[in-house]
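Need residues for this backbone.
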């Protein structure tokens, strides 16, 4: 497939890029700084500030994957970026948009999100709050979106290929730990790209 990947040099984005390339997809990797993008893929520079620029860069793509990570001191930048991405995919021909999301809006009990539970460490609350708002923006749109929430602990690790998927509830193991490596997350997001099973929906992952 012809895939545009935003945030291609970030922690999750670089692993998604590697997974896409390993499966033979044609990737246009987009970042603010393209110096870290591997030479075997097409590199483009963009900061997601202009709808027309985004639409031009994604025109003709099969899908767009957004691994955009907002600045720590302005996490609500994610909301404006999501709004511009929605406008751009409509302008470019209603291309599918798959978003690397957050875990804070997942339920840990019926009707209680991880964010509302009070168990999320304080430094993560602003980003989790902004991710929840961005998910609301996607849900209110009429595009073909997918929002993929990681587990609570989302870090670089092993590519095992063994994980469980869920919908709106945090996936935890027998020890009540919610974890996923960025490498296994990358497998699942490319699986979803290749065989869509969560269109206009959110899903999640964990061990």
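Answer:
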């Amino acid at each position: 497939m012809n895939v545009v990947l935003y945030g291609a040099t970030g922690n999750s984005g670089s692993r998604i890029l590697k997974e896409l390339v390993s499966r033979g997809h044609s990737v246009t990797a987009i970042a603010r700084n393209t110096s870290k993008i591997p030479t075997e893929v097409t590199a483009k520079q963009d900061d997601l500030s202009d709808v027309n620029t985004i639409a031009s860069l994604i025109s003709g793509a099969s899908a767009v994957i957004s691994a955009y990570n907002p600045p720590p001191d302005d996490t609500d930048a994610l909301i404006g970026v999501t709004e511009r991405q929605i406008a751009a995919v409509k302008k470019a021909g209603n291309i599918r948009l798959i978003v690397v999301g957050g875990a804070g809006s997942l339920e840990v009990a019926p009707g209680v999100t991880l964010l509302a539970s009070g168990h999320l460490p304080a430094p993560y609350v602003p980003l989790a709050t902004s991710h929840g708002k961005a998910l609301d923006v996607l849900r209110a749109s009429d595009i073909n979106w997918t929002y993929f929430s990681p587990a609570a602990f989302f870090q670089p690790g092993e590519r095992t290929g063994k994980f469980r998927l869920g919908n709106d509830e945090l996936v935890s193991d027998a020890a009540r730990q919610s974890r996923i490596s960025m490498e296994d997350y990358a497998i699942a997001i490319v699986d979803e790209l290749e065989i869509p099973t969560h269109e206009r929906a959110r899903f999640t992952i964990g061990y």
